[in-house]
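Request: Have a read of the protein record below and say how the chain folds.
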Amino acid sequence: MESLPLGLAPSCSSTVVLVVGDAVALALSELKKFTRADFDLYHPGGALGIKANS
């Protein structure tokens, strides 16, 4: 059931998918022993890369 009165626009379901996706990503990063060096490889620039390299 979606939170909007008409129940047409996805709100709850999109939030659930986001949570599940994040959980899967975190679990896989732990299983694969994803390191800071791996992160730097995929995010060399931009805000995430700058933060990781500081």
Q: What stands out?
A: Helices lie at 12-31, 36-42, 46-52. The chain has a mean pLDDT of 84. The radius of gyration is 17 Å.
